[in-house]
Amino acid sequence: MNRKELDPEKSPGAAFGHRLRALRDERGWTQDELGERMGCSGTHISAVETGRRPPTRRFAASADRVFATGGRLERQSSAVRSTALLEGFPEYVTHEARAAEIRLYEVGVMPGILQTSEYATALNERAVERGASTAEQAEERISIVAERQAALLRTPPPLVFVVLDESCLRRPVGDPVTMDGQWDRLIDFAALSNTVLQIAPFDMGDRRPISLPLYILTMQNRSLVSYAESAQRGQLERDSGSVVPLLTAYHQLQAEAMSQAESVALIRQLRKGTS
């Protein structure tokens, strides 16, 4: 019987299908046997495993029940169905949840892994008001922020390096209480044993080697993955020859940015209204 090889790196759908097949193979079930347990056909199972049909939330929840995977398949399926995110970002999120080290640089807005729920809600409510997204897309973005943050609590936790452009701190989002809570979140984040937080101040000027948001992951096998985006599109890159120069630029950015102690002091000043 011909068996289609699955490449989990090809797309979020392929990654989901690969995981579903692996779980099925571990139990020695045929596609028909799994379909019977999940209340669907073996043909449906085949279509999801090979990426020809995306998993619905209901399908993924049923698979979690059958395999006793604690909601992991349902969370993974959200990356396959996502329509609210730029191209490449859903796949980036699946890598981020497994990375040993996470490095990111953000401009203008707090990165999702650091957003409070109030900040994320205010940000997305404004997008809906402007007509930039639908209420459903806003809800999906907020949900993905929560899922990404939950994934950081794994054991052992990843090392997380964050450089924020000063504009992230000074751009008001929501009301003053929302910003106070967001600044508190940054201070708490900087105090963790597996994190480094730095601010790239405005006066870095042309010494700033990176101008657009950038995310770089070091995976458990030490391979590199990067994700960069503009206003209209995102680009996921897994070729080390392309990622290494970005990592070098990131290290240069860290060297020019404020130290963590200086960065936290600036945040505290903003929190007190003295800067």
What is the strand and helix layout of this fold?
Layout: H1 12-27, H2 31-38, H3 42-49, H4 57-67, H5 72-81, H6 89-96, E1 101-106, H7 117-130, H8 135-151, E2 159-165, H9 166-170, H10 176-190, E3 195-200, E4 214-218, E5 224-229, E6 234-237, H11 240-256, H12 260-272
Parallel strand pairs: 1-2, 2-3
Antiparallel strand pairs: 1-4, 4-5, 5-6
Helix pairs in contact: 1-5, 2-3, 4-5, 5-6, 7-8, 10-12
Task: Put the structure in a nutshell.
With 275 residues, the protein is an alpha/beta fold.
Structure description:
The protein is an alpha/beta fold. It folds into two domains: 12-81, lambda repressor-like DNA-binding domains (434 Repressor (Amino-terminal Domain)); 89-115 and 148-272, Endonuclease Chain A (Endonuclease, Chain A, 2-Layer Sandwich). It contains twelve helices and six strands. The chain has helices spanning 12-27, 31-38, 42-49, 57-67, 72-81, 89-96, 117-130, 135-151, 166-170, 176-190, 240-256, 260-272, and strands spanning 101-106, 159-165, 195-200, 214-218, 224-229, 234-237. Strands 3-2-1-4-5-6 form a six-stranded mixed sheet, with helices on both faces. Strand 5 and strand 6 form a beta hairpin. Helix 1 packs antiparallel against helix 5, helix 5 packs antiparallel against helix 6 and helix 10 (176-190) runs antiparallel to helix 12. The longest helix is centred in the middle third of the chain and has 17 residues, at 135-151. The mean pLDDT is 90.
